[in-house]
Amino acid sequence: MTATAMEAGPVRVGLERTWWQRHGNTTIVWASRVALLAVVLVLWQLAADRWIDSTFTSKPSDIVRRLVEWSGDGTLWTNTWITVQEIVYGFLLGAAAGALAGFVLASMNLLYRVLDPFMLALYSIPKVALAPLFIVWFGIGVHMKVLLAAVTVFFLVFLNTAAGVREVDRGLIDAVRLMGGGRREIAFKVVLPASMTGLLTGLKVAIPYALIGAVIGELVASNRGLGYLINDAAAQFDTAGVFATLVVLSVIAGLLNVFVGLIGKRVNRWKPLDD
Amino acid sequence: MTAILTANAVTKQFAKDDAAIVALREFDLDIEEGSFVTLLGRSGCGKSTLLNMLAGLTAPSTGQVRYRERTLSGPDTSIGYLTQHDTLMPWRDVLRNVEMPLEIKGTPSGERRRVAMDLIERVGLGGFEKHYPRELSGGMRRRASLARMLAGAPETLLMDEPFGALDAQLRTELQEELLRLWQGSGQTVVFVTHDIEEALLLGDRVVVLGKLGRILLDTEIGLPRPRSADESRVDPEFVALHKELSAALKEEAR
């Protein structure tokens, strides 16, 4: 048989579209975003000292000045670097442990059922509540923040990976059994790839929590990092300093969200059949 | 002819709370080597349960399934099973899906690719080997599943309403292709369907199943091959058989 006349289905045809038809919507969205930001900043600048006391709200020009000043004397870079390190190490540690634990535990049905309620209980504890204990255990150095971030990330990755493993289509496992595959083949050729969606979802939701964990750790107790910078500036009633740090944190969060977006694309590609 | 696949007083029940739901009771069947047997029955008569046991996926509660004089205690690579629902791995493209049985068997990758490409061509999926299951239509996924099953080079094929979810034209097309692939291969086929016409067009022998797998009718189909769907419909012998099977199914319903 020749390549059978494939069933009636979608056909791909070329399409002529102008630049505006192609990118018009994106352009409008981005232009509006920039405009919104500009309006807020200008209003803020105008309102400060005119209608509201800038001791409390600071103003954009002061914040920029503070950022330039801090970046000049290096305060900004050293503290940002500390926080970024805590986020990255915390995330890697938590994600690796969570993925491994999720994969192994969820594959062992009985053990998983025994541990499930405990895991959920631990997951539900607000992680800030662990900070004092972690200070006792690990001191107020970088370790405590890394671990606080890692614990937060761990549960999110663990729960999502475990869910991914447990939702593996029974039919796919049977398919491998029919091909003569044993436990090893089932684990590596079905369960592992099938749980990728869950794992990636877990990684995706966990990224911002690594930032939260690290900064909370710094807010509770530290002498370095962006959380410390906020505490320190606030203690001196330096609102410009607080806002400047918040700006840096938003930039970091924004960059992390770009990673999240990249992972999100990956997740969609791995998504199983809808039916 | 010798029986290659035998069900011997097979009963299957599923425990549900304090009750057991019986799907199949004291079922006996012999499948002869090289034959094309269609099992015809209404939904819920235990067809899929039976096929799962013949494939070795589930064990009977009592009784036994024997394959080549051995009791079947688990899946056997010489039995291929095409399930009702697609079980292609969504993260593998068509080529790697079809290669999978060979991969598990440990065939070297060059050989694997050659066999898989050949099969993909034979089921009419040439040019689609790099597509993922999600990007294929229902009919194309069926073809890919068929190619994957054949890649394991099974001598017995079990098929559970494989074309049930497809439109009528496509079903006819795939039925013809299945016969073309089967003819001369010496393979044994057990084909489950609820469609009388499909049972008649494909089978050498039709077994009509009633509730709990009771055999209502077991008859050889002497119609000459190749049987074309359009011509058979007006063939008096075909029409007579159709009536006979239809009556058998109806009797049960009463």
Topology:
The complex is a heterodimer of chains A (275) and B (254).
Chain A: H1 19-47, H2 54-57, H3 60-73, H4 75-107, H5 109-124, H6 131-138, H7 142-166, H8 170-178, H9 183-220, H10 226-235, H11 239-270
Helix pairs in contact in A: 3-11, 4-7, 4-9, 4-10, 5-7, 6-7, 7-9, 8-9, 9-10, 9-11, 10-11
Chain B: E1 3-16, E2 19-32, E3 36-41, H1 47-54, E4 62-67, E5 70-71, E6 79-82, H2 94-105, H3 109-122, H4 138-151, E7 156-160, H5 168-182, E8 188-193, H6 196-202, E9 205-209, E10 215-220, H7 229-232, H8 236-253
Parallel strand pairs in B: 3-8, 3-9, 6-7, 7-8
Antiparallel strand pairs in B: 1-2, 1-4, 4-5, 9-10
Summarize the structure.
Helices cover 79% and strands 0% of the residues of chain A. By secondary structure, chain A is an all-alpha fold.
Question: What tags apply to this protein structure?
Answer:
heterodimer; A: 275 residues; mainly alpha; MetI-like fold; 79% helix; B: 254 residues; alpha/beta; Rossmann fold; 2 domains; 6-stranded mixed β-sheet; 4-stranded antiparallel β-sheet; 8 helices; 27% strand
Protein structure class of chain A:
mainly alpha
Residues in helices of chain A, as a percent range: over 70%
Total strand segments of chain B: 10
- Gyration radius of chain B (Cα, Å) is 18 Å
C-alpha termini separation of chain B: 36 Å
Total number of domains of chain B: 2
The tally of domains of chain A stands at 1
- CATH level-four homologous superfamily name of the largest domain in chain B: P-loop containing nucleotide triphosphate hydrolases
Tell me about the largest β-sheet of chain A: none
From N to C, what is the helix and strand string of chain B? Answer: EEEHEEEHHHEHEHEEHH
How many helices of chain B? Answer: 8
CATH class of chain A: Mainly Alpha
Largest sheet features of chain B: 6 strands, mixed
Average pLDDT of chain A works out at: 86
CATH architecture title of the largest domain in chain B: 3-Layer(aba) Sandwich
Average pLDDT, all residues of chain B:
88
Gyration radius of chain A, rounded: 25 Å
**Helix and strand composition category of chain B:** alpha/beta
CATH architecture descriptor name of chain A? Orthogonal Bundle
Work out the helicity level of chain B.
25-40%
